Amino acid sequence: MGTAIEVRGLTKAYGDFQAVRGIDLDVDRGEILAFLGPNGAGKTTTIEILEGYRQRDGGEVRVLGVDPAEAPLSWRDQIGIVLQESEPVPELTALESVAMHAAYYADPRPPGEVLEIVGLADSAEQRTRKLSGGQKRRLDLALALVGNPRLVFLDEPTTGFDPSARRESWDMIDALRDLGSTVLLTTHYMDEAEQLADRIVVIAGGRIVARGTAADLARQVGASTTIRWRAPGDAPAPPSGLGSSADGEGTHELTTDDVVPTLHALTGWALDHDVDLSDLSVNRPTLEDVYLALTDQDAADGPTHGPGEGGAR
Ligand code: ATP
Fold this sequence. Notes:
Elements: E1 3-14, E2 17-28, E3 32-36, H1 43-51, E4 58-63, H2 73-76, E5 79-82, H3 94-102, H4 111-117, H5 133-145, E6 151-155, H6 163-178, E7 182-186, H7 190-196, E8 199-204, E9 207-212, H8 214-220, E10 225-230, E11 245-246, E12 251-256, H9 259-272, E13 278-283, H10 287-301
Parallel strand pairs: 3-7, 3-8, 5-6, 6-7
Antiparallel strand pairs: 1-2, 1-4, 8-9, 10-12, 10-13, 11-12
Adenosine-5'-triphosphate binds next to helix 1.
């Protein structure tokens, strides 16, 4: 498959504040990787270094095989960047905007096709000043895609979207996978990361604190599944091997990492003893639970926020 991004021992300080403290990161070609972390964790600093917009202090970085600090213009052609906010030229139509950007690239995608991919084909002749917020974000993505990039950086692509616009954006980002692009996605929405990413990397306090699939991360923090049920007061006690506890009102609860065998044992016992397990529920930890546990652990280990000198980036 090959590697799109390779980072070893990356460091960056602002004055005497160490914002990135020696991180390693690999992103495979064709992969969607979510880069998560609390405010001030070092995401933007890292990504700007990968994009070639910020100089690193130390470490090795290869993006599409090239050191971004010394990248030629032809390298930039292969990279699409969607920032949190951008302002298209108001008097141009959506199609004209995309066509204008296409002219900057050696091997652009046809502008009409790009509008199709991002779901803006129906608004191709609309002036950009008349586009809604959600449509403007689609146009941002179209502008990033028209150069036919092999790697796309998506910075909080759905911040401020209503729920249906978010779902539509997810379809759009999924379509990038089909085009074979590699995507590095930052987001503060855990459901978005869970839905879109092949793998997740969590940074806190300038260090990578976890990496893997959502399930790998859950294992890392030891987050178990909770099974709950209510049973009538006169029901026999559940088998002690289940390790469940009960409150005074007939609600039983257990936690397990072996959900299927545990449910099998519980429901088998209930059938054998004719016990009605009302309100049976199985709650797997969400990525949000896992993320909070991971970033809380880090907060306990050291500061995650810098002094904030220099204000905005
Ligand atoms: P957010 O989710 O809020 O965008 P982030 O993870 O992207 O946060 P960075 O923007 O990389 O975090 O910032 C990391 C740390 O470096 C923060 O403590 C921030 O205050 C500090 N920092 C960032 N840019 C500068 C700068 N130009 N000068 C001084 N400090 C900076």
